[in-house]
C-alpha cells in the first residue's frame, strides 16, 4: 500500500499539504493524517480524493505512535511521502512565558518529529520523500521567540543530517523554511503577528506548492520568497549578535 503520512494535518500548512499532495502524486493508495482534532480531520477527509486514514491523538504521547506503527506493519506500508508539519510557537520573553507550554513546544516540534521520522524510515525506499517543516526562524536566534527558533534550528539540523544519511537509499529529504505564513499560528503563539511579520506574510498554498516542487527537484532546503532567502543569506554572513540586533530594530520600528 502506497501512502503519504502528514502530521499536523488538521490546520495550516499540514492541511494544505493534504490538499495538494494527491494532485501531484497520483499513485498513492491512501493518505494517513495525524492531529489532535478529530472533527477537523473528518472535515478534511471529505475534501480529499483519496481514502484517508485518521490517527487522532496527541503526538507528544506514545499511544499514537503505537497505533500508527501497528498499521504500518499490518498493511506492509510503502511510505512515499512523510510530511512532519505538527508544531506550535509562543511569542514573548522566555522567562515570562509558561514553562510547561515551552517544554511542550520542544516535545512536539523536536521529539515528536524525530520519533515519527525514525519510525517511518524503515517503510521508505528509493524515491520516497520526507518534508520536515522548520521555519526561517531556524536561521538565527530570535529574541521573544527564543524557544521556538531553537526548536526549528533543531529541525533544520536534523533534516540536513538525516537527509545526507538517507541519500544512499535514494530517499529525498527537504527541510521547509517559510517566513510568517497566513494561518492560525500567530493566534496560538499569543499574537496576531506584528506589522513587521505581516509585511512578509505568505499564503500557505504558495509555500506548500514550492515545498512540493523543491522536493520533486530533490532540493535539500525550500525557502519561499525573496525576503526569506535574503534572511537566510544574512544569517550565514553576519554574526548572530548583529542579526539579533537587526531583528530587534525591525520589530521596534513596526510597533
From TrEMBL:
<dbReference type="InterPro" id="IPR020904">
    <property type="entry name" value="Sc_DH/Rdtase_CS"/>
</dbReference>
<dbReference type="InterPro" id="IPR002347">
    <property type="entry name" value="SDR_fam"/>
</dbReference>
<dbReference type="Pfam" id="PF00106">
    <property type="entry name" value="adh_short"/>
</dbReference>
<dbReference type="GO" id="GO:0016020">
    <property type="term" value="C:membrane"/>
</dbReference>
<comment type="similarity">
    <text>Belongs to the short-chain dehydrogenases/reductases (SDR) family.</text>
</comment>
<dbReference type="GO" id="GO:0016491">
    <property type="term" value="F:oxidoreductase activity"/>
</dbReference>
<protein>
    <submittedName>
        <fullName>Oxidoreductase, short chain dehydrogenase/reductase family protein</fullName>
    </submittedName>
</protein>
<keyword id="KW-0560">Oxidoreductase</keyword>
<dbReference type="InterPro" id="IPR036291">
    <property type="entry name" value="NAD(P)-bd_dom_sf"/>
</dbReference>
